[in-house]
Amino acid sequence: MSWTDKVIDAQQFSSLGADLYIRVAYSEFDKVGNVKKIVTITVITGTIFLSICTYLLWKRMANLKGRKMKAKEILLFKRTEAQPKFHSDNLDQVKVQELPLFNFEKLASATNNFHLSNELGKGGFGPVYRGKLPDGQEIAVKRLSKASGQGSKEFMNEVVVISKLQHRNLVKLLGCCVEGGEKMLIYEYMPNKSLDAFLFDPHKEKLLDWRKRFNIIEGIGRDFGMARIFGNDEDQANTNRVVGTYGYMSPEYAMEGRFSEKSDVFSFGVLLLEIISGRKNSSFYHDEQSMSLLGFAWKLWNADNIIALIDTMIYESCFEMEILRCIHVGLLCVQEFAKDRPTVSVVISMLKSEILDLPHPKQPAFTERQIPLDKKLSHSGQRIFSVNDVTVSKVQGR
């Protein structure tokens, strides 16, 4: 049957009643089906889209969380056979994971994309750049060079050491950046530059009289002795990588990788003689008579003319004995063998004249001119070459 009239007064009965079947045109039935298809497709598409968005959001959050975890983990020093061991009590005291993490893009912006004009210097670690944060604070960014031959070991060593040693005489470590393949340390910027900018400048050295230089010597003496943080035992550590500034490394460290408190003492001795003489250790490298400042000082000592080492800018007869004592201490610090050098605490006592009788110094290290390697030939006529893993830095201050 075909119903052609309106359907009125339709009710739903809880019981009884009868089903009413209505025949409709095929075209009308097709419209109803299309609506159902559209609704179905829309629901399915929306569900898939929301699922994809939810997955991508979750993945992004997981990646960010993983990156942060990785950054924290890489700052925690892990003991391996290939790197110097840390005393466990020292390591526990260093909460490296609490060191502020800087964003790479923020540092790139602060240094104008690490532009050459902002480069302050280069070291065995890598270049150091001057930067300025959005709040106006000036910083020095020490960026690990990928071609330096150094890696996470050296980076973590420095982070642990400097994090532990926040001292008024040390440049303050503000934070670090560990992002992708980048590893950077962020220090406070020194507007007055480093000591060498004054000490070796013929115009500025006049600002450093003997009293100021002696105060600097004493202050630096209280920063030395960091080597005790490292070590397989209480005395020394062996490392297969040597990192430092040429001219300041002790012979046992530069040649054998043996690092101890006495290695620090050697570096301090070189610096002490530089401060007194007003001359760079490197200024003698092309001298035919002396290989270094140490050799020059030793020659004057043997000639009983050590007073000639004193910078004329600081010499006053009333300070002569104090200056000569400092030179004596400096020569004791740069002894060739570590066992002959005094400890840091003894050095400070010597400088303060708490120890009056000083031992006679022996011949310092690096005092004899060596034959250049390219002039050494074997009996077969072939050159002799040596393999060295040492990484050194420029002598200029940074």
UniProtKB/TrEMBL annotation:
Pfam family, one: PK_Tyr_Ser-Thr
Residues spanning the membrane: 38-58
Molecular function terms from GO: ATP binding; protein serine/threonine kinase activity
This enzyme's EC code(s): 2.7.11.1
Residues in Protein kinase domain copies: 114-356
InterPro entries cross-referenced by the UniProt entry: Kinase-like_dom_sf, Prot_kinase_dom, S-locus_recpt_kinase_C, Ser-Thr/Tyr_kinase_cat_dom
Keyword Protein transport attached: no
Keyword hit for Mitochondrion: no
Top-rank lineage group of the source organism: Eukaryota
Record keywords, A-Z: ATP-binding, Disulfide bond, Glycoprotein, Kinase, Membrane, Nucleotide-binding, Serine/threonine-protein kinase, Signal, Transferase, Transmembrane, Transmembrane helix
GO cellular component, one term: plasma membrane
Top EC class, one word: transferase
Reaction(s) the record says it catalyses: L-seryl-[protein] + ATP = O-phospho-L-seryl-[protein] + ADP + H(+); L-threonyl-[protein] + ATP = O-phospho-L-threonyl-[protein] + ADP + H(+)
PROSITE patterns: PROTEIN_KINASE_DOM (PS50011)
Protein name stated in the entry: non-specific serine/threonine protein kinase
